[in-house]
Amino acid sequence: MHWKRCDYRIESLRLTIEGLEKSIVELEKKLKEIEWYDGIWFLEEVEPIIGLSFIALQNYINSSIYDRFETLNNQYEKYKIGKLVNDAKRTEIELIIGIANYFKHRDDENDLRKGTSSILLDCGLKINKEIDITESPIIKGLELLTEKWDLSDLIIIIDKWRENLWIEIKKH
Asked: Coiled coil located at which positions (predicted)?
Protein backbone atom coordinates (compact mmCIF):
# COMPACT_ATOMS: atom_id res chain seq x y z
CA MET A 1 0.00 0.00 0.00
CA HIS A 2 1.24 3.47 -0.92
CA TRP A 3 1.99 5.49 2.22
CA LYS A 4 -0.19 8.40 1.08
CA ARG A 5 -3.21 6.15 0.76
CA CYS A 6 -3.52 6.41 4.54
CA ASP A 7 -5.66 9.52 4.83
CA TYR A 8 -3.90 11.84 7.27
CA ARG A 9 -5.92 14.83 5.99
CA ILE A 10 -9.41 13.69 6.96
CA GLU A 11 -9.12 14.41 10.70
CA SER A 12 -8.29 18.10 10.26
CA LEU A 13 -11.10 18.37 7.71
CA ARG A 14 -13.54 16.80 10.19
CA LEU A 15 -12.46 19.26 12.89
CA THR A 16 -12.92 22.17 10.50
CA ILE A 17 -16.37 21.01 9.42
CA GLU A 18 -17.41 20.36 13.04
CA GLY A 19 -16.43 23.93 13.92
CA LEU A 20 -18.44 25.30 11.02
CA GLU A 21 -21.43 23.14 12.02
CA LYS A 22 -21.23 24.60 15.55
CA SER A 23 -21.37 28.08 14.01
CA ILE A 24 -24.54 27.13 12.15
CA VAL A 25 -26.09 25.82 15.39
CA GLU A 26 -25.36 29.19 17.04
CA LEU A 27 -27.14 30.99 14.22
CA GLU A 28 -30.09 28.60 14.49
CA LYS A 29 -30.44 29.65 18.15
CA LYS A 30 -30.92 33.23 16.99
CA LEU A 31 -34.01 32.11 15.05
CA LYS A 32 -35.62 31.10 18.34
CA GLU A 33 -34.24 33.83 20.58
CA ILE A 34 -34.47 37.03 18.53
CA GLU A 35 -37.92 38.10 17.41
CA TRP A 36 -36.90 40.04 14.29
CA TYR A 37 -34.31 37.45 13.20
CA ASP A 38 -36.02 35.45 10.47
CA GLY A 39 -35.13 32.86 7.87
CA ILE A 40 -33.76 35.46 5.45
CA TRP A 41 -31.35 36.85 8.08
CA PHE A 42 -30.35 33.29 8.92
CA LEU A 43 -29.62 32.45 5.27
CA GLU A 44 -27.60 35.66 4.85
CA GLU A 45 -25.45 34.77 7.85
CA VAL A 46 -25.16 31.04 7.24
CA GLU A 47 -24.27 31.23 3.54
CA PRO A 48 -20.62 32.30 4.11
CA ILE A 49 -20.17 29.54 6.68
CA ILE A 50 -21.43 26.96 4.22
CA GLY A 51 -19.24 28.53 1.52
CA LEU A 52 -16.18 28.11 3.75
CA SER A 53 -17.03 24.45 4.21
CA PHE A 54 -17.03 23.98 0.43
CA ILE A 55 -13.61 25.63 0.18
CA ALA A 56 -12.28 23.25 2.86
CA LEU A 57 -13.75 20.32 0.92
CA GLN A 58 -12.24 21.59 -2.34
CA ASN A 59 -8.83 21.81 -0.70
CA TYR A 60 -9.17 18.25 0.57
CA ILE A 61 -10.25 16.99 -2.85
CA ASN A 62 -7.35 18.62 -4.69
CA SER A 63 -4.86 17.53 -2.02
CA SER A 64 -6.18 13.97 -2.34
CA ILE A 65 -5.59 14.07 -6.09
CA TYR A 66 -2.06 15.26 -5.44
CA ASP A 67 -1.54 12.50 -2.86
CA ARG A 68 -2.52 9.90 -5.43
CA PHE A 69 -0.88 11.24 -8.58
CA GLU A 70 1.73 13.75 -7.30
CA THR A 71 0.32 16.26 -9.76
CA LEU A 72 -2.91 18.13 -10.37
CA ASN A 73 -2.76 17.48 -14.12
CA ASN A 74 -6.12 16.17 -15.29
CA GLN A 75 -7.73 17.03 -11.95
CA TYR A 76 -11.02 17.79 -13.74
CA GLU A 77 -11.19 14.17 -14.88
CA LYS A 78 -10.79 13.01 -11.28
CA TYR A 79 -13.77 15.17 -10.27
CA LYS A 80 -15.89 13.01 -12.58
CA ILE A 81 -15.37 9.91 -10.42
CA GLY A 82 -18.37 9.08 -8.27
CA LYS A 83 -22.11 9.45 -7.95
CA LEU A 84 -24.10 11.81 -10.15
CA VAL A 85 -26.19 14.58 -8.58
CA ASN A 86 -29.86 13.70 -9.07
CA ASP A 87 -30.66 13.85 -12.79
CA ALA A 88 -27.69 16.06 -13.62
CA LYS A 89 -24.73 14.93 -15.68
CA ARG A 90 -22.39 16.14 -12.94
CA THR A 91 -20.91 14.27 -10.00
CA GLU A 92 -21.16 15.25 -6.37
CA ILE A 93 -17.46 16.13 -6.44
CA GLU A 94 -17.91 18.40 -9.46
CA LEU A 95 -20.73 20.17 -7.62
CA ILE A 96 -18.60 20.63 -4.49
CA ILE A 97 -15.80 22.12 -6.62
CA GLY A 98 -18.28 24.33 -8.50
CA ILE A 99 -19.83 25.69 -5.31
CA ALA A 100 -16.40 26.38 -3.79
CA ASN A 101 -15.32 28.27 -6.91
CA TYR A 102 -18.62 30.17 -7.00
CA PHE A 103 -18.19 31.23 -3.38
CA LYS A 104 -14.62 32.42 -4.01
CA HIS A 105 -15.37 34.30 -7.23
CA ARG A 106 -19.02 35.39 -7.09
CA ASP A 107 -18.11 39.00 -6.34
CA ASP A 108 -15.44 39.29 -9.04
CA GLU A 109 -16.07 41.90 -11.71
CA ASN A 110 -15.71 39.29 -14.44
CA ASP A 111 -18.16 36.46 -15.03
CA LEU A 112 -17.52 33.09 -13.47
CA ARG A 113 -15.23 30.77 -15.39
CA LYS A 114 -17.06 28.61 -17.86
CA GLY A 115 -16.27 25.39 -15.99
CA THR A 116 -17.76 26.72 -12.77
CA SER A 117 -20.87 28.18 -14.36
CA SER A 118 -21.44 25.03 -16.46
CA ILE A 119 -21.34 22.78 -13.40
CA LEU A 120 -23.78 24.94 -11.46
CA LEU A 121 -26.17 25.39 -14.38
CA ASP A 122 -26.05 21.66 -15.20
CA CYS A 123 -27.18 21.02 -11.61
CA GLY A 124 -30.10 23.43 -12.02
CA LEU A 125 -28.63 26.23 -9.91
CA LYS A 126 -29.01 29.94 -10.62
CA ILE A 127 -25.83 32.00 -10.80
CA ASN A 128 -26.68 35.60 -11.68
CA LYS A 129 -25.20 38.32 -9.47
CA GLU A 130 -28.57 39.68 -8.34
CA ILE A 131 -29.84 36.35 -7.06
CA ASP A 132 -32.05 36.27 -3.98
CA ILE A 133 -30.48 34.54 -0.97
CA THR A 134 -33.24 31.92 -1.04
CA GLU A 135 -31.96 30.84 -4.48
CA SER A 136 -28.25 30.97 -3.61
CA PRO A 137 -26.32 28.21 -5.41
CA ILE A 138 -24.41 27.69 -2.17
CA ILE A 139 -27.60 26.96 -0.22
CA LYS A 140 -29.39 25.11 -3.03
CA GLY A 141 -26.25 23.14 -3.88
CA LEU A 142 -25.92 22.02 -0.28
CA GLU A 143 -29.54 20.85 -0.42
CA LEU A 144 -28.74 18.76 -3.50
CA LEU A 145 -25.95 17.02 -1.58
CA THR A 146 -27.63 16.65 1.82
CA GLU A 147 -31.31 17.24 2.48
CA LYS A 148 -30.69 17.81 6.19
CA TRP A 149 -27.94 20.43 5.69
CA ASP A 150 -25.60 18.04 7.49
CA LEU A 151 -22.08 19.09 6.55
CA SER A 152 -20.69 15.79 7.85
CA ASP A 153 -22.64 14.09 5.02
CA LEU A 154 -20.25 15.90 2.69
CA ILE A 155 -17.28 14.31 4.43
CA ILE A 156 -18.81 10.88 3.78
CA ILE A 157 -19.15 11.78 0.08
CA ILE A 158 -15.54 12.87 -0.33
CA ASP A 159 -14.16 10.07 1.83
CA LYS A 160 -15.79 7.49 -0.50
CA TRP A 161 -14.55 9.47 -3.50
CA ARG A 162 -10.97 9.46 -2.18
CA GLU A 163 -11.03 5.68 -1.80
CA ASN A 164 -12.39 5.35 -5.35
CA LEU A 165 -9.56 7.58 -6.54
CA TRP A 166 -7.09 4.93 -5.36
CA ILE A 167 -9.14 2.02 -6.69
CA GLU A 168 -9.92 3.66 -10.06
CA ILE A 169 -6.31 3.66 -11.24
CA LYS A 170 -6.08 -0.12 -10.79
CA LYS A 171 -8.88 -0.59 -13.34
CA HIS A 172 -6.83 0.94 -16.14
From this structure: 10-37
